[in-house]
Specification:
Elements (H helix, E strand, L loop, with lengths): L5 H9 L4 H15 L4 E5 L2 E5 L3 E7 L4 E5 L2 H4 L25 H16 L19 H8 L2 H9 L2 H12 L4 H16 L11
Antiparallel strand pairs: 1-2, 2-3, 3-4
Helix pairs in contact: 2-4, 6-8, 7-8
């Protein structure tokens, strides 16, 4: 018999109004297609496990996402992962989803793969070379001792996330705003994606 996790009830309740029916619908279809599913939270989002990780969903400001751990084997060319996180693209209403029958079919395929113990080869990322600290960030950190100490204490990947965020700015105004925000967050000991961490 499957399990329900009250943290997922809370997650749905805190989600935007447009997302609540989508998440509820996805949850119901997953349970109907796999009665032995176990709910959990991973990376602060609802996930569903059956003999290992199987699928998960998330709500964002303007869309929802749903994906499978073995999505490439389940959806193949039908995957819309280029549109948003997950494999079903940007979901803004229930009608953006496949029919219940099609979605249940995907879930049953995921169950079969997990029953068979099929593993999906994950791309292994090589160690990235450290990025040099941009001069404007270096100056901001030099003038803020708390930020400098925190930044020096971050892991190389946490430092890289801030540097890439600054370098990805399309305009000087955006870069200036990001630099101010980054300096404040770093001084508080926050990594770039602190909002998404538990």
């Amino acid at each position: 018999m499957g399990t329900k996790d009250p943290r997922i009830d809370a997650y749905i309740a805190k989600s935007a109004d447009f997302a609540k029916p989508i998440l509820t619908h996805l949850r119901e279809v997953v349970h109907a297609a796999c009665p032995d599913i176990e709910e959990t939270m991973k990376w602060s989002a609802p996930h569903f496990d059956y003999k290992g990780a199987m699928c998960g969903m998330a709500a964002f400001k303007e869309h929802c996402a749903f994906g499978f751990w073995k999505g490439s084997l389940i959806l193949g060319e039908n995957s819309r992962s280029g549109e948003a996180m997950g494999h079903l693209g940007r979901i803004t209403r229930i009608s953006d989803l496949p029919t219940k029958k099609v979605l249940a079919g995907y879930i049953k395929q995921a169950v079969k793969l997990n029953n068979a113990g099929v593993k999906v080869e994950r791309m292994k990322g090589g160690a990235k070379k450290p990025l040099p600290t941009p001069p404007d960030l270096a100056r901001a950190l030099k003038s803020n001792k708390a930020a400098r100490a925190a930044f020096d204490g971050f892991s190389p990947s946490a430092r890289r996330e801030y540097v890439e965020w600054l370098l990805d700015a399309k305009t000087e105004d955006t870069r200036t705003r990001r630099l101010e925000t980054a300096t404040g967050w770093i001084a508080e000991g926050k990594t770039r994606h602190w909002k998404y961490q538990k």
